[in-house]
Design brief:
350 residues, mainly alpha, Cytochrome Bc1 Complex, Chain D, domain 2, 17 helices, 52% helix, binds heme C
Length: 350
């Protein structure tokens, strides 16, 4: 028995030394050109599947069938993911196919994963493969939007994809726009509706819009969609961009159906607040005639966007400019019913 213990101890000391010597010798090849052996490839993917399956066990997906979830995610996919995975509108450069492992065509592999597993992959990325993590780790709603889009991707032809992403099709009518085509692909008024998760920019103050862009750029306001959109914009074009949106004439809008009781409950809270819960009157800051330009306009903003922002403020995750703490404390004690009522009120107030 004592002799066996001795061997074990010697092996425990020697093995790391041999391993280290092998790594130091340079004999271990790191060439991507020859690919993995079939067995290495199998083991790596087996480990990846196990890890993702285990990590996603405790995650329950929210409802993902709202078609509005797809809009921002499709645009983001075209600018942030298609370079590696390709898309119905974009072939990949050959250099990408020489990556090890090569990024798969997602149309083919998405059906193999559950929603919770896709969430895990998109949010955290995949180590040792080049698959990056979502740029913002503090909020999950954008990642779920991407999962909703990925579900739809296998059934999308090029035309449906171009329509969903808003890219490629723009500008063909000979319109001259001062905007980078990407802003309009998501924010063009004609692409939005009352339940969009993408905000309307038209009619907001220049000061507020400029502040928002700087906040996204600096990471003070977390959004993977907007971070990518502003990452490569030169700072000196921002004032022109916000001037365009602030001074644009809003398109005429039809009033969509709403629950009058919910609207009334929202109106009461917005006008009076609720002192028992330390909720201030929203209209004491927002949408006044001489309002501080740092307070965004809420009337007519899209309902789903308003809901999400209020949820983010309530959790302390929204971020923003130097005055955002006012809003974080205003939203702290809102309950779900308050948020539904306030979004219905401001979303349908013209
Ligand atoms: C720099 C290149 C690159 C970018 C950009 C990229 N990916 Fe990937 N992605 C990869 C690679 C490489 C893999 C791993 C392939 C493997 O080994 O299975 C992968 C894997 C995946 C998978 C799992 C598919 C499977 O079965 O392996 C999904 C889903 C995915 N990516 C979605 C996305 C989304 C959504 C985006 C954009 C937010 C994105 N990727 C951006 C390279 C990239
Ligand atoms: C892929 C879709 C997409 C693209 C492209 C995009 N945006 Fe956005 N934008 C969004 C979404 C989604 C939000 C809401 C993000 C959040 O939750 O903070 C947003 C928010 C904003 C806001 C904040 C509005 C508010 O009321 O607080 C501004 C300003 C803005 N975008 C301007 C731009 C400009 C300028 C461009 C072009 C450089 C652009 N966006 C490109 C999707 C997009
Ligand atoms: C003391 C002033 C103040 C009060 C009261 C206030 N807000 Fe705000 N609100 C702000 C400021 C400032 C911002 C901008 C934060 C930033 O982005 O820096 C804001 C932003 C928002 C936004 C985000 C809009 C967008 O375009 O992204 C929503 C939604 C909002 N407020 C709703 C409300 C509601 C609902 C109430 C009432 C419960 C309320 N606010 C009360 C000051 C206030």
């Amino acid at each position: 028995m004592t002799i066996r213990w001795k061997y074990l101890i010697i092996a425990a000391i020697l093995l790391p030394i041999i391993g280290f010597a092998f790594a130091w010798s340079g004999l271990m090849s790191v060439k991507a050109s020859t690919g993995h052996w079939a067995v290495t490839d199998w083991v790596l993917h087996w480990m990846m599947r196990n890890s993702i399956a285990t990590a996603s066990l405790s995650r329950t997906p929210p409802p993902l069938d709202d078609p509005n979830l797809v809009a921002g995610a499709a645009g983001h996919f075209e600018t942030g993911c298609a370079i590696c995975h390709g898309s119905p509108a974009q072939l990949r450069p050959p250099s990408v196919m020489a990556m090890l492992p090569p990024p798969p065509d997602l149309k083919e592999v998405v059906p193999e994963w559950s929603d919770a597993q896709l969430f895990e992959i998109v949010k955290y990325g995949v180590r040792f493969t080049g698959m990056p993590a979502w740029p913002v780790q503090t909020r999950d709603d954008e990642v779920w939007s991407m999962v909703a889009f990925l579900r739809k991707l296998p059934d999308m032809n090029a035309q449906a994809y171009v329509k969903a992403s808003g890219l490629h099709g723009l500008g063909t009518a000979g319109e001259v726009s001062p905007l980078p085509i990407t802003c309009e692909s998501c924010h063009a008024e004609s692409r939005l509706n009352d339940e969009s998760f993408i905000p309307r920019l038209v009619g907001q103050s220049e000061a507020y819009l400029l502040q928002a862009l700087k906040d996204y750029h600096a990471g003070r306001r977390p959004s993977g969609f907007m971070q990518l959109a502003v990452a490569t914009l030169p700072q000196d074009v921002l004032p022109d961009l916000v001037h365009y949106y602030a001074t644009q004439q809003a398109l005429p809008r039809t009033v969509t159906a709403f629950d009058p009781q919910l609207f009334e409950a929202g109106a009461r809270l917005a006008q009076r607040g609720r002192s028992a819960d330390k909720i201030p009157a929203c209209l004491s800051c927002h949408d006044r005639t001489q309002a501080n330009p740092a307070y965004p306009k809420l009337s007519g903003q899209n309902g789903a966007y308003l809901r999400r922002q209020l949820e983010l403020f309530r959790q302390g995750l929204r971020g923003g400019g130097t005055a955002q703490h006012l809003m974080t404390s205003a939203a702290k004690n809102l309950n779900d019913a308050d948020i539904a009522a306030l979004s219905a009120f401001f979303g349908h107030r013209r």
